[in-house]
Amino acid sequence: MTSSVIERTVTTATEAPSTPLLFVVWIETNCGEGPEPDWEMDWALGSGRELEPLPLALDHAAECRAAGYPTLIMLPGQTPRADGLFTNPAY
Predict the structure, then answer these.
(1) Contacts of 21 (CB under 8 A, 6+ apart)
(2) Structure pTM?
(3) Most buried residue among 9, 10, 41, 53 by CB atoms closer than 10 A?
(4) For 26-75, how does the pLDDT look when each residue is reduced to its tens digit (9 = 90+)?
(5) Under a CB-based contact definition with an 8 Å cutoff, are residues 67 and 25 in contact?
(6) CA-to-CA distance for 33 and 85, rounded, in angstroms?
(7) Residue 18 has what DSSP assignment?
(8) Angstrom distance (rounded) from CA 27 to CA 7
(9) Residue 59 Cα to chain centre, angstroms
(10) 68: region left, alpha or beta (phi > 0 left; psi from -120 to 50 alpha)
């Protein structure tokens, strides 16, 4: 009987991905009062962009909820709007 040893490189699961996932905070501007929801992307306060890492998106959503807006956190390219649009066409 013979045996062989296979050498393998050690990899760790703790390595962070090279590019972090970014998220979009959506707010429902009718606050549940209108006939149907009107979701809009809420730009990150002071950042000048709508994409933010998850910890910042969670803080941002918490501030919006504290101001009375229902919020959702979604990946870019996803929309909660029933019409599938990313902005309200009335604006």
Answers:
(1) 53, 54, 75
(2) 0.71
(3) 41
(4) 999 888 887 888 888 887 555 567 899 999 999 999 999 999 999 999 99
(5) no
(6) 21
(7) S
(8) 53
(9) 12
(10) left
Q: Is 70 exposed, middle or buried (0-12, 13-18, 19+ CB in 10 A)?
A: middle
CA distance 70 to 30: 9
Structure tokens at 4: 């062989």
Per-residue H/E/C for 73-87? EECCCCCCCCCCCCC
CB 44 within 8 A of CB 25: yes
User: Residue 62: in which H helix or E strand, if any?
Assistant: helix 54-66
Cα–Cα distance for residue pair 24/50, rounded to 1 Å = 6
Q: Which two tokens stand for residue 26?
A: 């959506």
Residue for token pair 């905070």: 25
Structure tokens given for 38: 């009107």
